[in-house]
Amino acid sequence: MSSTLSQLKQQLAALEPARSPGEKGFTLGVDQVDAALGCGLPRGCLHEVFAHEVGDAGASAGFALALALRAAGEGRHIVWVRHAFAVLEQGDLYAPGLAQFGIDPDRVLLISAKSETMVLRAGLEALRSPALGAVLLEIWGKAGFLDLTASRRMMLAASRSGVTGFVLRAAGQPQPSSSLTRWQVRAAPSVGLAAGAPSNPVFDILLDRHRAGIAGGRWHLEWNRDRKSFDLSAAQPARFDEPLATPKRSAAKPLPGSVVSLPVDRPAASPEDQKPFRKTG
């Protein structure tokens, strides 16, 4: 583990210079949400992102990555420390998928840690480097070592460096922590595009706690990869424990060109056409 930390220190030291002191906060890009949060979220502290259920692990990871991208700013690197058990449960990160999400895969420094303690040690070391934009710590399971003492150390490191940390929990319950905010996330239906084209991901998010005394809230946010910002989704949230309502879908425009109608009084294909494929040549 010591050799791994030494290599990490060398890589972090070779990155960009420290951020300017004036970069104190970041927004989500939605006026209604940013106003409720008190003009956005502060940098240089710790935030927690929980999956509402294990099946929402992908949605929580996407929301945490979107927040990290907003917090990192233009061009700065993001360190993602993944618990090996999370890799076994969810698989490795997919570089083309990161690009489709709106982030250059070269900006993500990926660290795979075998244990929870290794995740915390590597994450703490990354939070101490002012050259970074954000740090993601992904822990799977109970996270018994992530207690008040560990979270305070990370908060202190983040406040000194100005780097924003995000603790991602996909299969665990909230516990006492020094993190500034705590979010619960689950996947939400998105509005389909014409011709069945894939639409932007939508997150059903709940602000469960804010240590600054800001009241919680719930929103449906759609991630826009081109602007690298959130938008309000067409679906309106109810209570977080209620099933989500399917948003109204706009009628899909037909594809150009004529379509041959099928016969109603005979099979669509002749018996000869229904035979298995034959080799030719």
Describe this protein's structure:
With 281 residues, the protein is an alpha/beta fold. The chain has seven helices and eleven strands. Strands 5-4-6-7-3-8-9-10-11 form a nine-stranded mixed sheet, with helices on both faces. A two-stranded antiparallel sheet has the order 1-2. Mean pLDDT is 83; it is low at 17-22, 249-264 and 270-281.
Q: Give the SSE order as H and E letters.
A: HEHEEHEHHEHEHEEEEE
> How confident is the prediction overall: mean pLDDT?
83
Alpha-beta content class: alpha/beta
Query: How many alpha or pi helices?
Result: 7
Largest sheet: 9 strands, mixed
How many strands?
Answer: 11
Name the poorly predicted regions. Answer: 17-22, 249-264, 270-281
